[in-house]
Amino acid sequence: MGSQFGFLAKLGVMQNLASGLVACVDPVIIHNMEKYSAILKIFYYTAIEDIQGDYLEFGVYTGSSFCHALRCCKKTLKYGKQVWNSSKARTRFFGFDSFEGFGEVSEGDKHPFFEDSNFATSYEKVQKRVAPFRKHFDVKLIKGFYNESLHAGPAAMGIEKARIIFVDCDTYTAAKDVFEFCAPIVQEGTIIVLDDRVCYKGNREAGVTRAFEEFKNYSGASTRLFSLYGMGAGIQIVSGLKR
Ligand SMILES: C[S@@+](CC[C@H](N)C(=O)[O-])C[C@H]1O[C@@H](n2cnc3c(N)ncnc32)[C@H](O)[C@@H]1O
Asked: Of 57, 85, 94, 211, which shows the fewest CB atoms inside 10 Å?
């Protein structure tokens, strides 16, 4: 009886074809497709687990992931309880970005890809992009560098609880401000997405991972890995909280 592997080896043409097709795909597209799938899953999960609160995204850029989150929330509303506040969905959407890139970058935050020239965007264009969602959702885009825009804290913006925190702002300094802002509003079940988890060559003492590890120490939050996606990105769930 011939081996199955012998048969597979004869499929070299097919394998070359598949490899050629995959090699043509821009890795950014692969990362983003996996990210979109991950965002859909976390909206479904937080709906069926009845995790209340708002969606906060730090690093909106052109609004792709932000608009996708709005879409996923709408699609998964049917799975949740107590999802409406009069005519609007109960989960509000807050997007935070300078819309001008990183600003001044410290020595430890320097990275070959995290440069303003790679992240040119427009606040006005993103406002237009989110406009169709305002019929069903309360959406706020907060423009400014985090060391200023987050300074007043979540209570000043009426944010009490976070359902999902999406951290996609790349550097340690930005993420540090983000986690300090979020510490009072995490609850058991809050989902925290770290899109840049293994940047800086995987160094745990740099980037978003450093800020996240510090956050766990001072916030009293314990977390569990929920899932991974794309190029080393990770999703955590707050599994316990001692305040
Ligand atoms: C990778 S992009 C976000 C991509 C977006 N989440 C998406 O998937 O479409 C990173 C964004 O973080 C923003 N950012 C980085 N550091 C910041 C800071 N200190 N304050 C405000 N925004 C910052 C940049 O302006 C940039 O738009």
From this structure: 85
Tell me, using a 6 A CB cutoff, whether residue 174 lines ligand 1: yes
Distances in Å between the alpha carbon of 159 and those of 15, 57, 91? 51, 13, 11
Task: Quote helix, strand, coil % in the chain, to nearest 5.
Answer: 45, 20, 35
- Ligand 1 atom closest to the Cα of residue 169 is 12
CA–CA separation, 62 vs 241, rounded Å? 34
Q: State if residue 36 touches ligand 1 by the CB under 6 angstroms criterion.
A: no
* Cα dihedral across residues 53, 54, 58, 64: positive or negative: positive
**DSSP-assigned beta bridge partners for residue 97:** 143
Domain annotation for the chain: domains and CATH numbers: 27-241 (3.40.50.150)
What average pLDDT does this structure show over 15-37?
95
Name the pLDDT band for 3 (thresholds 50, 70, 90).
low
**Is the Cβ atom of 102 under 6 angstroms away from ligand 1?**
yes
More confident residue, 36 or 87: 36
Q: How far is the CA of 59 from the centre of ligand 1 (A)?
A: 3
Helices (H) and strands (E) in the chain — how many of each? Answer: 8, 9
Distance of CA 208 from the midpoint of ligand 1 (Å): 12
